[in-house]
Amino acid sequence: MQERQYIREQFTREEDEVLKSIGTGLEKHGFPQISVPPEVGKMLHMLVKISNASNVLEIGALGGYSTIWMARALPEHGKVISLELKEEHAQFARKNIAKAGLGDRVELIVGDAMESLNQLEKEQKRFDFFFIDADKLNYPNYLEKAIRLSNPGAVITADNLFLRGRVFDENNQAPSPVTMRRFHQQMATDDRLESLILPLGDGLAVCRVKEPR
């Protein structure tokens, strides 16, 4: 699309060779090429900065592309915890994160995301910023966990809200579109949140956890 290409050329110049090489590496290893596009990476970077986040939780690391964008936006003492299901993806992400010089700012936890989230909740961890980009059928569960793990005023983001247009076809009753529509309603109606979907990439959700009155 002309608009998307224009935005990438003009506004994502921070996408350096480390970030660009991740796509090539994913292809080389036979991993899925489903990293966020550069404009979404830049948006995440800006949102982390604007929100003054210092503790970020990412659900779904893959090759570490979005991880690097967010980690680069953190203050010196900041940290990203990234949850990844597959060890081979985590190993690849670690290499990319190290190449970016961010090994001290990122912790990768391998395993089932819900189990990891339950453990973080038990440890009473709290976060300022969340990025959800994992299995779509668990998006409603991930959102609820993010709210429970959030500091007041935290920002929760999520990718693939449009499912490449499938979510808008009401005749499509496959599990992923049905769950994503429910996720949309969950964001829109939860009194604990202020939410919006940005038409960026494949649809980016941005929610703010309201501060208690």
TrEMBL record:
Q: What PROSITE patterns has UniProt attached to this entry?
A: SAM_OMT_I (PS51682)
Reply yes or no: does the keyword Metal-binding apply. Answer: no
The record, for Pfam families, names: Methyltransf_3
Supply the InterPro entries for this chain.
Cation-dep_OMT, SAM-dependent_MTases_sf, SAM_O-MeTrfase
Keyword Cytoplasm present in the record's keywords: the answer is no
Domain of life of the source? Bacteria
* Gene3D superfamilies in the cross-refs: Vaccinia Virus protein VP39
Q: Which CDD domains would you find in this protein's record? A: AdoMet_MTases
This chain belongs to the protein called O-methyltransferase
